[in-house]
Design goal:
By secondary structure, the chain is mainly alpha-helical. Helix content is 85%, strand content 0%. It has ten helices and no strands. It starts with a helix and ends with a helix.
Length: 227
């Protein structure tokens, strides 16, 4: 087995997990507000959601899922979920920090929130479909294909540990006012991502339907000229 192939998979997983986005924003917000453990569970949950798309890409099912209906449903669900997270973050920023910040991760649903982030993220569908095709094109089959995904998730898990350690160390330097500003800032960022996903979903849906309408219109004109 080529070690460069494995290291490339680990590096891709680390880069994918560390990319600024909704998951890292929510992990940062919860980590700063509720502790590093909360961030760890959000990141871990998102990996479980991403693994669904990885399995679909591995089996080829993702090709069927990349339909306009599936992408539209995922886009609307993901956008609305992010907007809800944004509202919760801004609402928490307006409250005074109290004992409810120490509620356990199980009661807050950090892990389940991360899972929903991973599943409802439309980017995951396109990413894993592209990665699956690229790995097949590189000639990897059988065990090598599975090892690639294992290396990818090792890199993603490495990022989970890095962000958890960073939050555990840096959280002690923040005061009560900083917690509010982090919640407010993260809420705005989550809101941006949610609105952007909804806009791109609506735009894609409109373009597809408009293109279909133009094709039908041209076909009708062609038939009339033929008559």
């Amino acid at each position: 087995m080529n070690w460069l192939f494995i290291l490339s998979a680990v590096g891709l997983g680390l880069a994918y997990a560390a990319t600024p986005g909704a998951v890292n924003t929510e992990a940062l917000r919860r980590g700063v507000t509720h502790g590093a453990q909360a961030a760890f569970w959000v990141e871990t949950g998102s990996l479980i959601g991403d693994s669904l798309w990885a399995v679909l890409a591995l089996t080829g099912v993702a090709l069927f899922a990349r339909s306009l209906a599936a992408e539209t449903i995922l886009g609307i669900a993901g956008g609305c979920f992010l907007l809800r997270m944004a509202w919760l973050a801004i609402h928490e920023a307006s409250r005074r920090r109290s004992a409810d910040a120490h509620i356990s991760s199980a009661k807050r649903g950090d892990f389940s929130t991360g899972v929903v982030f991973g599943v409802a993220n439309p980017v995951g569908l396109a990413f894993w479909s592209g990665v699956g095709s690229s790995v097949v094109a590189s000639g990897a089959t059988g065990a090598a294909y599975i090892i690639f995904f294992a290396g990818f998730f090792c890199g993603a898990v490495l990022w989970c540990l890095i962000i958890t350690a960073a939050l555990h160390w840096g959280r002690h330097w923040l005061g009560p006012h900083a917690f509010r500003w982090v919640n407010l800032l993260c809420g705005c960022v989550l809101g941006y991502f949610g609105l952007r996903i909804l806009w791109l979903t609506i735009q894609s849906w409109a373009e597809q339907h408009f293109s279909a309408y133009l094709n039908d219109h041209r076909l009708l004109l062609g038939l009339r000229h033929a008559d």
